[in-house]
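Worked problem 6 (solution included).
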Amino acid sequence: MATKKVDSMTVEELLAKAGTMYKVAKILGISRVAAYKWVKKGKIPPARIKSLMLLKPDWFTSEETAKN
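Solution. The predicted structure is:
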């Protein structure tokens, strides 16, 4: 298997990794209200994606089957 770096994430993918938006808010040091706005809008701000990539890089890798 090969590991692929991913540079974007949907709100649904983020919830699958973190469990709750409350946990995401704690990781980023922002209010729960701010994080829950992403759910309502259906989009994570690009600056927050970059912050998450630095704080939780393992959330942005996916294992793929290497094609020969």
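Discussion: Residues 64-68 have pLDDT under 50 and may be disordered.
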